[in-house]
Each structure stands twice: as structure tokens, then as C-alpha cells.
Amino acid sequence: MSNFLKAKMTVDKEYTLAEVDPRLYSSFIEHLGRVVYGGIYEPGHPQADEYGFRKDVAGLIREIGVPMIRYPGGNFVSGYNWEDGVGPVANRPKRLELAWRTVEPNEVGTNEFIRWAREQQAEVMMAVNLGTRGVDAARNLLEYCNHPGGSFYSDLRKSHGYAEPHGIKTWCLGNEMDGPWQIGQKTAAEYGRLASETAKAMQLVDPSIELVACGSSFRSMPTYAQWEAEVLDHTYEQVDYLSLHTYYGNAENDTANYLAKSLDMDLFIKEIVAVCDYIKAKKRSKKTLNLSFDEWNVWFHTLETDKEIAPWQFAPAQLEDRYTFEDALMVGSMLITLLNHADRVKIACLAQLVNAIAPIMTENGGAAWRQTIFYPYLHASLYGRGTVLRPIISSPLYDSKDYTDVPLLDSAVVFNAENEELVVFALNRSVEEKLVLECDVRGFQGYRVAEHIVLEHEDVKAVNTAASPDMVQPHSKGDAQVSDGLLTAQLSKLSWNVIRLRRV
User: What percent of the chain has pLDDT over 90?
Assistant: First the structure.
């Protein structure tokens, strides 16, 4: 390769894609490992509040500005009896939790979690059990959460100390129901019928709710696309979103190939949009279905080691991937992909939020710190609010083991008219060389660079730990500048960049 690589971009405020739904920066808390117990909740910790929830962890979550949190699963929900998690804590049963083969004490349940989430200024995306249960349990939980009073379950909530309804708006109809690992796995026909009847009952209880139907668990599922089509045949007019899940990893230790995997995510979204629109056409519907990418992240570090964890423990350290610098770059690329599909992806949940495949890590009784992936998630949430634009990009390309014509520049552009701010998210995938970015911003007269944030590190395997929590962290020493309507910036090799322009 030459010593001078250049990418060009043209941005204009008239070329818009869609408004960013703030829920694109949502996350996920499941009763899994130390996500809840030892993560957000640890009575006796020096930072615990009066309810036992860790204030240091809450502070990091509020720093990100997480708008919505999916709960209580995940695989967990397919064997969960919601009634176990309400009422006096002393009376709640301990259960064998089959999804992750642990013991669930039910100290934290529906009310505690909703109260905690609201304290973090986050709404709750509630999942119902369509594995071992179905219509009846779902409608009863909805009544418990949302009905004002005068019925059995709403009055039960009041007797538990919550006089006002929780008003949960967004509900998931089960989780990954095509997966053989799922408790109560179903065929597309079985799930489609159950989801349809559950939706019908829930909408009778509360017509204002939004519903998410399960898509295929992964793009590699043998029934992929056919599953989505058959499920939507049953549920299209009743649901508001179809879910997508994906995780990527670098087990082969090939950075160039790893960072190209967001192309797979891009294709995944396009294919599912096509299936949704096919069913729309088939049904002659006027309704356009949107997507909920309610599980996405990097996950591969613990896939083998977690198999050695002894079963039936309380809150063992499960799925505790220690994220590297290159993992942060991958998360940044996935965020860029989500932004560039903001016209159809309205909800996305980074899975998970604390300890298990998470941006935030804790020690029991000790510190909480930011993993490497915390930073692109933080930057997107803080600065990726507004209207996604459609830039014209010309970038050098490369081929990797599994992908061809991979752009070295991966980018998304967001314009916030209210704040008069233009933000360019830019990832340089080159493992060897800097990339010079030239961006035509003549449509933004009077705008100057307010900040050029850079996340870079010489060691792609560098991690943040309790002992060295700042080993990988961003700086604001990027050299981006605007002159005569041209934004120029040098993007370091393997770097995540956030270039913020403001009107002066």
C-alpha cells in the first residue's frame, strides 16, 4: 500500500436518511451471571444505595445516557415466572434457572428493576415468557404493570407498594424462539400463532403498547428468512417491530477480517427489511414494519472457558469478556451500521450493560470501570442524536479472508439542527496506515471543528482492568479542521474518530 491513503466524502443537510430514534442507544440487563447480582445490585457494597443498587455503576450508566433497557432476558425469560419476582422479598422462591444453569434468588424483580431503571432516566423494554408459558402469563404481567387499578393484578401491584401503573410501552414477545438452546423452542408456525394470540390479548389489556416479534436468533440459522416470513404471516398487523440479534468475534486473530464483519451486519439488516417488505406486499398492507436490533455486541472471548463453570451457583462470573482495543473499533463499526439504517432500525440494545459482555465491569465489593467498548457507545449516544445524513463516500478498499471490497473508511454522519452541530463518526480500518479524510461541508457555512475525539492504541489487544482502568481511553487531540468548506482530518491507523462541527 502507498504511504498516503485518502478518502473523500460529501455531506449536505438536504440529503437525509432519517431521524435517529433515541432508543437506538438502548441496552439490555438479563438475570445472567453478575449482570444483576454483583453488577447493578450489591447490598453491602460501599456504594450501595438504600435499595442495594450500586451508585457507582448507576453513575456510569447515566454517563452514557441509556434511553431504554431490555429486561429480564434473553434466554432467562423463557423459563421465568414473573410472579416469583414480586411481593415481599422474604417470601420469594429460589429457583433453578435453566437457561444459564444457576440459582435465581429473585431478590430483584419487576418492581425493583423498573424503579431502578427510571432512576437512570431509562425506560424499560419488557419481555414476556413464550417458552414455558404463554398468553395468560403475558396478559397478567401487562395488567400488573400498566392497569391503573380495580382489577386483581393491578391491585396486587398496589398491595406491593406501587400505587401508580408503570406504563411500560414496549414489550418483546419471547426471545430467540427458533433456537435449540431456548427453553420451549418452537417452529415458526408454532411461535407465529402463539405470538399472534398473545399480542391480541395484550392489546386488549392495553392498546397503547408496542410489540416486538422474534426474528431468527442469528443470520446463520438454518431457517433464516423463512422463519421471519412465516412469523410475520401470522403477526404482521399486530406487531410494530421484528427483532434481530448478532454477535461478532475475532477468534481467528485476524484484525482486518474482524473489522470487516460489520458488512455482514449491514447485509443482515437489508435482508430482513426485504422480508418485512415482502410480507407487506403480500398482505397489501399500508403498514411499514420497523426493526429492533435488541441484541448486538462483540462476544467470543468466553465461549469456551464458560463451559467449565460448575452449575447451580449463585451469580457466577459468566460471559465476562474482557474487551480489547480492537473490540472497541468493532463496536464503533456496528454503531455506524445501525446509524446508517436509522430509517428502519428504531431500537437497538447493546447486550449486555454490566459484567456479562458489557461496557461496564465491576468487582464484588470493589471498583467499577469502563471497558474499551464503553467509549464508542458513549460517543454515539451523546453525539449521535438528530438526523442521519446520506454522505457520498469514496474510500480505498481492501480484501480480507471472508470479505471483498471492504472500505477503509467506515462512517456515519448526524446533523443536529437544534444544536447546530454536525457530527462525523469515522473508523479507519487500516491496520498499517493513517487515512486522510477530505469532506466537502460547503452546505454548512459558518461551521468549525469544535472537537476531534480519537480512540487509538498501539496494542490492538490492550484492555482496561480494575488496576489499569484507563489503559484505553479517548483523547481530543485530533487535527480535524475546516477551511473554505472543506473538512480535513488525519485518521490514525485503526482508530475511532468523532469529529464535531458547530456553527460559530
Answer: 99
Catalytic residue numbers read: 176, 295
User: Which grid coordinates belong to 28?
Assistant: 439490555
What is the tens place of the pLDDT at every residue in 182-196? 999 999 999 999 999
DSSP character string of 183-220: TT---HHHHHHHHHHHHHHHHHH-TT-EEEE---SSTT
Q: Which three cell numbers stand for residue 137?
A: 402469563
CA-CA distance, 68 to 169, in Å (whole number)?
11
Write out pLDDT tens, residues 290-338: 999 999 999 999 999 999 999 999 999 999 999 999 999 999 999 999 9
List, in sequence order, the alpha helices (H) in 317-452. 325-339, 374-383
How many helices and strands in the chain, by DSSP H and E? Answer: 10, 25
Could you give the CA distance from residue 32 to residue 39 in angstroms, rounded to a whole number?
A: 10
Q: Cell numbers of 3, please?
A: 504511504
pTM for this structure? 0.97
Neighbouring CB atoms inside 10 A of 118's CB total: 12
Would you call the peptide bond into 22 cis, given omega within 30 degrees of 0 as the criterion? no
CA angle 250, 251, 254 (to 5 degrees): 55
Q: What is the Cα Rg of the chain in Å?
A: 23
In this structure, what C-alpha cell is assigned to residue 430?
Answer: 487500516
**Which helix H or strand E contains 500, and what residues bound it?**
strand 495-503
